[in-house]
Amino acid sequence: MAQIGSFTRNEDGIYNGEIRTLTLRVKATIRPVERDHDKAPDHRVSAGGVEFGAGWTKVARETGAEYLSLKLDDPSLPAPIYATLTQGDNGEHKLIWSR
C-alpha cells in the first residue's frame, strides 16, 4: 500500500488536497453529496471541475474509526484506482492506494 495523496478537511466536511501517482498529479476536492439510495456514494471526487471518482463512508471493524473508501476512474487510467482516505497526523488525511 502506497500513499498517493494528502488532504485536509474543512469545517464543511470538504477535503482539499493533491493526488500523485506516476502518471497523475492533480489538485482534487472530495465533497459530501446527498444520497439518492443506499448504494449511492457519500462523496464525489473532482479535479478541475471534472468528476472522476466517488467515495463511501466506512467504519473499521477493529478500531471503529471512520474512513472513506474511494474509487477513482478516468479514461487516461488503465484501470480504476481504489483507495482509502484515513486520518493521519496533525489534521492531515492520507490517501492510500490498494489493489
Automatic annotation (TrEMBL):
Name by which UniProt lists this protein: DUF736 domain-containing protein
One Pfam assignment: DUF736
Database matches in InterPro entries: DUF736 (IPR007948)
Organism name: Sphingobium yanoikuyae (Sphingomonas yanoikuyae)
